[in-house]
Amino acid sequence: MQGVKSVTKQAFMKSIPIMCSYVFVSMAYGMMMENAGFAWYYSLLTSLTVYTGAFQFVLITFLSSGASIVTIAVTALLMNSRQSFYSLSFLETFRKMGRKKLYMIHTMTDETYAVNCTIEDKDENSRKEMFLVAFFSRCYWMFGAVMGGLIGQLIPFELNGIDFCMTALFIIIFINQWEKADKHFPAVAGILIAVIALMIFGQRAFMLPALVIVSGVLIFWNSKQQKV
Questions:
Q1: Mean pLDDT per 10-residue section of the chain, whose length is 228 residues
Q2: What is the pTM of this model?
Q3: What is the dihedral of CA 154, 59, 52, 47, to 10 degrees?
Q4: What are the boundaries of each domain within the chain?
Q5: Where are the transmembrane segments (predicted)?
């Protein structure tokens, strides 16, 4: 049995790549929140309750424009539904973790999923390591969000253009998925449907119908692929 210090050290070492990305991206998020008129503690509260980087950036626009709760909720569900499927891979492992199970499901992100896949469920220490990776990763994001909010208050000039980091984030995610995927129909369909929805519904209202249509198309396409 490994000691607590050893398990903590291993978890921290495995979480370092996540820290390098989370801290800087979440700092940009905190700055954007401050630039939109929300103080640092709003960034912290949002990170505590939402904890999904891509949607948190989108949420800034929703909060600033006064979007309805229904629009926010449905968009959050559709944008982050993939994370629910991540947890399916660790059902047996999470079940063994008792009261920590719900926390592990809530904190399952692209990055923590990737790290957890490298940790075999051999014993209790392995599960502790998974928990600590999730805990450290969430702390990194919250720390960066708060720091970004505080820095945003100190910067004496407008942060025009910093919102491009959200666009850059989605572009990086898209390129990464494109390179890994064997079939590119989902990506192409997503682009075409988004463009058509933008032309029909306009810039302020296209996102929700685009997500609904894309989700329906991909569910149908996936069912056809399974039958082949």
A1: 77 87 86 86 88 82 80 79 73 86 85 81 84 92 91 71 64 74 83 90 77 81 73
A2: 0.70
A3: 50
A4: 4-160, 181-228
A5: 21-42, 54-79, 131-155, 161-178, 185-201, 207-223
